[in-house]
TrEMBL record:
PANTHER family: (E3-INDEPENDENT) E2 UBIQUITIN-CONJUGATING ENZYME, OS01G0232500 PROTEIN
Entry keywords, A to Z: ATP-binding, Nucleotide-binding, Transferase, Ubl conjugation pathway
Organism field: Panicum virgatum
Region annotation Disordered: where it falls in the sequence: 30-84, 371-403
Source domain of life: Eukaryota
Protein name as annotated: E2 ubiquitin-conjugating enzyme
Compositionally biased residues, Low complexity: 380-391
Amino acid sequence: MDAEYCGLQQGSSSSCRAADAVAWGAAQQQKRQRCQGSSSTSSSLQISEPEPQDLNSGEIVEEEDYYMEDDCDDDGDGYDEDDYEFDEADFNQHLADKFDDLDLPPGVEATVPWLQKIAAKEEAEEPSKSNTADENADKYKQFKQFDTVQNFSDHHFAKNSEGEPARAWSKRVQHDWKLLEKDLPASIYVRVAEDRIDLLRAAIIGPKGTPYHDGLFFFDVHIPSSYPSGPPLVHYHSGGLRINPNLYNCGKVCLSLLGTWSGKGCEKWNPAQSTLLQVLVSIQALILNEKPYYNEPGYEASANTPHGQRNALEYNDNTFLYSCRTMLYSLRRPPEHFADLVAGHFRVHGHTILAACKYYMEGNDVGSVVPEEESECKSSDAGASSSSSNAPKPGAVKANPPTRRITFNTSLKTLYEDLLMEFNVKGADTRRFIVEKLKKNRPAAV
């Protein structure tokens, strides 16, 4: 073997001889280590040092060039090491960015210096966020139920001008204003225009125990010159959605009091007794009700039949989905003069709306009152924790068909995610729902 090695050594270049000598020397060293302690002795071979390589010989070792290229230029842009200045802050930010998508166990962040710096930066930003939230909360608290504004630029009836109003007409309108200011329910807000006293805008909160609960619904009202001999004109801000048989996607409001539907007796407009306040309260009570399906003419006859009950439940499902979409529409494009109300309302009620979404996705009937405990903590068996008033009655239609529920849950899940994001931006109490979301998305431990 030694003779063969020497022969190969003579026929190779100087650089190869050096490399082979190093390899052969290492092999002989291993042999000597294995043989230590043996009774037989052998003469140790003296390995001469490899000859120095001639760096000017023109021979290039490709492996060396590969590693040099990898170490010096990762992105193809070379730099002079003498000109490079280490920026610790930039380096720490670069490391932190790599950890953005990682779900680190609790406590790990405290051991990572660059994460500590990022956390400290976020804590420094918290006061400004808190100040913004407090400012928004103050605006909401100060938002009056009834108030005057200069004018409306986006009012549906802004172009309906009928010239100089009569004195008797103006006096009656101002009388209705006083009734609104004095007797408005807590769930209705109104703004009237000083420059155009024939225009007003109302926001109505959906009643609890209905598929509209905690939603915000906006209506533009025009008081024609024939008022009070004739009723006012009312337009609903639908966003292209028909959430009720009486509220069309084009904005039409179908109500006997407005003369847009047939009625009799006190259902019809009475110049001596009917008022703007009555119109708004009727919309809230008669239209935004528990079972809007039966608002459709002729459908009330099926109220006590299984077929009618099932259709009413399905209609409630769609209505709640549309109500959630209306919330998003209002959050992203609040009507003029109502931005503070929209932001504040959903900041306060965002938690209960999200709780209702989860409660309904668990199989409870849309429109049933969400138990208070559902709004406070997650219940693994929401049906068992619901109040007795919401428990299914013997012989009642308990739920919609499974396929219908799957479709409903899929649509509501998407809306829930959008609402969670929007409510969180507005400062709503979303901590519980975000924690649940993070736990759900966390990979299972192996």
